[in-house]
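Milestone M4 deliverable, item 7.
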Amino acid sequence: MSKLVFWLFHFLSRWMLRLYYPGMEVEGRTYANHPGPTLLCGNHPNTLIDPLIAGIHLDHQTFFLANAGMWMNPVMAFLIDPFCIPVARPQDKEKGATKGVDTDEIFNRTFAGLEAGSVVYIAPEGASELERKLRRLKGGAASMALEAEKRNDWKLGLSVQPVGVNYESPTTCFSRAFIRYGEPIDITPFREQYEKSPMRAIRSVTNLLTERMQGLLIQTKNKAEEHLLRPIERAIQNEKPLRVSEHHYRTQRILTALRALPEEERESLRATATSYDQLLRETGQLDIEFSNHPDRKLTPGTLLALPFYLYGLLNHGPWLLAINGIWKALGIDRGYKATVQTLGSWIILPLLYLLQTLLFNWAWPGGWGWLYLLSLPVSGLFALKYWLTYRAYWKGRFSGRSDQDKELIRLRGEMLAVAGTFGHEK
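Output delivered:
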């Protein structure tokens, strides 16, 4: 029964996440997609979406270490208990969580999953933050991996599998994501060190895991560096759009180039980029309005397909309003926005399809309702495809106008005059 629930959850997650992140790309899947005990270690910027988006690409049952607060909701507890292991954080205990308090139980359930040859997901950072850099890893993942091998006389064959989930906008619907599975870590070479000094071995594995996970991400040093990088990579992407994987590698090269700049030039560029970004926010405009994005041109397809897009948008407007309304009504942190909207859509979208079909049949009886029902998912997917194809045109056209346009153009030109060649292959 638990396997059936897991694979149903797996199928729904894969379908819904493909909808929310339609530009998703995956790299290095063969590193992780193999039978045998695997401790899957991922970064954690986007709450429940992170383990889902890292696990849906694997063909083997995955268990997830999850915060115990989710077991306080009986419906959520029923859904996730067969394949999730509760871990009570201090904030969960303060809220009254009773699951995942016993550390020995957590380790034993994890060992049982690994010894059965399953994949176990853990977020070694320990908490979720809306950052794309990897924060300091805790030693729990390394400790679990080493102890699991020791319990099995170092014959378990466990691999510690790093994965980096890179979101262009983790809380924004229909944005892009790049999932990178890195080279796994073999635990057996650390046997001698662990038997002599467990803490030293845990630090060694943690440091190696940190290094490999950082290489899979855009690893900014601090918020100041992140705020400098964001407007530059956005402007360059709007000038020369690339697939999400290519954009990721170009952003890494841009970051390297920024760090190589003399401090005086870097600070001057920071001042320009900050002024430009702040002025965009103040005027409510978008960078794409001032770009030479190739898709900003009006094409026959833009107009010919518009009625079909509007039909799809009109019929899915109630769904979009509902999932946004639920998130706002819950009043929770925006880091949970994508999680609430994705999981909520599993229930809300089918119910709305049914309700809309019943209303259609009531208004126009005669059996046309089933044809209307069939048109709903087709029109929804068409509307999504249309928006992804032509949004550069519509965003650029309706992003707004202000009396600051000349200043915005000047600041953008100065920024790109310095940074426009960053990220180009030599």
